[in-house]
Amino acid sequence: MIRLLQIDRVKCEDTLEFDDILQVAGDILRKGYIDRAIHTLPKSVEELLLCQALKLLGVKLIPILEESNHSIDIRIPIEVLGFLMI
């Protein structure tokens, strides 16, 4: 099950390279959506990068994948997550 959670309630490790986070953020902006959720406690580098990139972009919500060890294909526009383009 996927639910949207306030992003400030999700702990993302911040020891990742800033350039890597920027690259993921740029990919999200180019696509206009995200195509995966993260687990309740992000573990993989890919999930941590996504979490940090969404925080960097200033979204309000983050899709959380609960009770599953598998990824689920999704397509959530960043506007749904609270991203505001000025």
In a few lines, what is going on in this structure?
By secondary structure, the protein is of the alpha+beta class.
Topology:
Blueprint: E1 2-6, H1 18-31, E2 33-34, E3 38-39, H2 45-57, E4 61-65, E5 76-77
Parallel strand pairs: 3-4
Antiparallel strand pairs: 1-4, 2-5
Helix pairs in contact: 1-2
Notable features of this structure?
single chain; 86 residues; alpha+beta; three-stranded mixed sheet; two-stranded antiparallel ribbon; 5 strands; globular
Report the order of strands and helices.
EHEEHEE
Strand-residue proportion? 15-25%
**Radius of gyration, Cα only, in angstroms?**
12 Å
What's the arrangement of strands in the largest beta sheet? 1-4-3
- Structural class, by secondary structure, is alpha+beta
Main β-sheet description: 3 strands, mixed
Q: What's the total helix number?
A: 2
Mean pLDDT: 88
Q: Per the principal axes of the C-alpha atoms, what is the gross shape?
A: globular
Number of DSSP-assigned strands: 5
What's the N-to-C terminus distance?
32 Å
Q: Which percent bin holds the helix content?
A: 25-40%
Which stretches are low in confidence, meaning pLDDT under 50 for 5 or more residues running? none
